[in-house]
Amino acid sequence: MIYIQLFLAFFYPGILGYGGGPASIPLIEYEVVDKYGWMNTSEFSEVLALGNSLPGPIAIKMAGYIGYEVGGVLGAIVALFATVGPSLVAMLILLNILYRYRQSPKVKRLSSFVLPAVVVLLAELTFDFLITSYDTMGIIYTIILIVGAYIALEKLKIHPVFVVMMGLIIGGIFL
Amino acid sequence: MARQRDIFIAFFRSGMLGFGGGPSTIPLVQKEVVDTFQMMTDEEFADVLAIGNTLPGPIITKMAGYIGYRVGGWLGLINALIAAILPSVILMILFLATLKQFKDFDFVKGMSNGVIPIVAVMLGVLTWDFLKKSHKSLGWKVGGIILCVSIVGMLILKLHPGIIIAGLLLIALLLPIKKEERKE
């Protein structure tokens, strides 16, 4: 019974959470706090705050942790499956259809038609990250880190893994 | 088997370094999948990202699941998902189980702050690359029109990107093909 509840609690936010992880957080909160009462609001915000500072997508971390708290390891698996499964199945079906007809001129054209939209999407994300960076650490640190990261990634061609690790170390010590 | 190892490494690294939520993993996944392991081209990656955005749910698991499947079949799918998800879930459970009494995670918070500008740079570079690509494949006229429509729709009207992309997909599939295009 608890597993069915866990599945439903994360299934709805998974399919209704348009706009990725962060968009599904209020929906998860509704299910977990208001509907099933597994946590109160302050516990939920504590988990959310910690989750936000650890790597990986937030909806996944919330599902894994809350599932584990409520139903142990199996609970975590059920909650994770409910979060990931439905949208992944839709993704596989859609992309497999496109892949099957990839020689068709219409499908070929499709790939170039979506490129400008991807550009805008990425530009918006870039801007969001710049603003967040400015808000959390101010203009000077932001500029130093941006210039440093650009040189390391694009001029010195250092693998992003090492650049990100440098960022983690610098951030942990100075920020 | 080497393929499966590549899949695991690609998504493990992206998942572990994706501080700041789902979107920050996009440029990391692109670097691993396109540059490091050459599992697909930039254009294919853009398709996956675009389609992924028309569907609900976290973007990284949609990308990991599909790319894993494309490169390594069903085993690849499970492999990529586990690599992308498991480390951060385990970290989360460990942290909350052992460190519940510590109320502030200043060090960890500072760490994720340090990554944000780096992700901004990677996203900026990716934006520029895709802008050049869309100019190359569509030219200034068609490319410019779609770009303007996307800007107005996403940034000014604040429509969800999935709606714009779904619209573009429909136009591409339904609009008749011109004769010159067919010859190519």
UniProtKB/TrEMBL annotation, chain A:
Keywords: Cell membrane, Membrane, Transmembrane, Transmembrane helix. InterPro entries: CHR_Transporter, Chromate_transpt. The lineage of its organism: Bacteria, Bacillati, Bacillota, Bacilli, Bacillales. It is a multi-pass membrane protein. The keyword Nucleotide-binding does not apply. Belongs to the chromate ion transporter (CHR) (TC 2.A.51) family. It is found in: Cell membrane. It comes from the Bacteria. GO terms for molecular function: chromate transmembrane transporter activity. This is Chromate transporter. GO terms for cellular component: plasma membrane. The chain crosses the membrane at residues 73-98, 110-131, 137-153, 158-174. It holds the Pfam family Chromate_transp.
From TrEMBL, chain B:
Coiled coil: none annotated. The chain crosses the membrane at residues 71-99, 111-131, 138-156. One of its GO terms (molecular function) is chromate transmembrane transporter activity. Keywords: Cell membrane, Membrane, Transmembrane, Transmembrane helix. Its main location: membrane. The keyword Ribonucleoprotein does not apply. It is found in: Cell membrane. It comes from the Bacteria. It is a multi-pass membrane protein. GO terms for cellular component: plasma membrane. Belongs to the chromate ion transporter (CHR) (TC 2.A.51) family. This is Chromate transporter.
